[in-house]
What does this fold into?
Amino acid sequence: MDSQIKLLAPSILSGDFSRIGEQIKEAEEAGADIIHLDVMDGRYVPNITFGMPVIKSLRKVSDLPFDAHLMIVEPEKYVDEFIDAGANMISFHMDATIHSHRLVERIKKRDVKAGVVLNPATPVNTIEEIIHYIDYVLIMSVNPGFGGQKFIPEVLGKIPKLKRLMEETGRTDLLIEIDGGINQNNIREVSEYGINIFVAGSAVFGKGSIKENIKVLKENMIVMV
Ligand code: DX5
Ligand code: ZN
It folds into this structure.
């Protein structure tokens, strides 16, 4: 059952980019399940990070699935290049593109998982029509753009709504990913809502050891029965 799936996806945004390859290896050895890649263009969000060449280089250091979270306008212009660079999952913000359905189809045609992202103020019902086609929903629990922000607890209210929509549409297989402000203190409570993929940036790469940080996060990702 997919509700039993619990995966930790460290976001390299809070890593040390002078030795990010080593840090990814360390995260992988500590039990990271997915590597979350925050791509920002300075237009969709007020910050700029990295793009395809960086992902292509990182592809050489890890066999873990790469989850590209595209915070860019007109993602359709670049999805193929992100896939060529090594992304295995691609999520985009629906208000960043005109033809979401076409984009999902294009991503899936290349055997890559397709996800849509809900910003904190974006209601769940905006995905009512696209839900039939996607593989996962990424719920932002901070405003996109920066690592190290404070978790917005009200977004948790969207999860029962999303689960209801999943039931109504027969898409209980959809994975739910949460991103922003997840840490060792709140991951247990958040996992009680039935989340499948937990993104954590500063809680993994901020202070302390990556290994210990991941261990504590994983111990507290509880499976709901
Ligand atoms: C924010 C990004 C997040 C963020 C996570 O726009 O999508 O992935 O970097 O970082 P933390 O866990 O520090 O909030
Ligand atoms: Zn992200």
